[in-house]
Amino acid sequence: MPQDTDIFDSNPDNDTLGGRLWRAREAIAMSETALAKALGLKKETLRAWESDRSEPRANKLVTLAGLLNVSPTWLLYGVGDAPQSETIASELSILRSQLQRIRDLREQTDAAIANMEKAIDKIAKHEGA
């Protein structure tokens, strides 16, 4: 028979409410200004929430969770539906692109070294002649 479980049985995200709020906002690439406007509050209020200097009221917390595509329990306790970051895919794409650029530069450097070695050998042969 399955045991009853609750939200506290899972491993929580140990960040603060403000940290989770900031991460969820960043995960959907929403600016402070845009989120504050959507909530009908000042950007300074949102900053205070994200820096744990104050906390949103329950009605704003539920609205926040909806706007950020996370569960209210994740914002409050770090368990439940966490942000699904599209930025991870874009970060991976950027890193792969940078890695390819480094590989291309390495090939160009190897070719330049080989050409320089040939030129040195050619000059050395003329000196010895």
Shape: rod-shaped
Low-confidence stretches: 1-5
Q: In the CATH hierarchy, what is the superfamily of the largest domain?
A: lambda repressor-like DNA-binding domains
What is the CA-CA span between the terminal residues?
A: 92 Å
Description:
The protein is built from 6 helices and no strands. With 129 residues, the chain is mainly alpha-helical. The chain folds into 2 domains: 12-77, lambda repressor-like DNA-binding domains (434 Repressor (Amino-terminal Domain), Orthogonal Bundle), CATH 1.10.260.40; 86-129.
Indicate the topology.
Blueprint: H1 17-27, H2 32-39, H3 43-50, H4 58-68, H5 72-77, H6 87-128
Helix pairs in contact: 2-3
Task: Give me some keywords for this one.
129 residues; mainly alpha; 434 Repressor (Amino-terminal Domain); 2 domains; 6 helices; 67% helix; rod-shaped; disordered N terminus
Concise description?
This protein is mainly α and about 130 residues long.
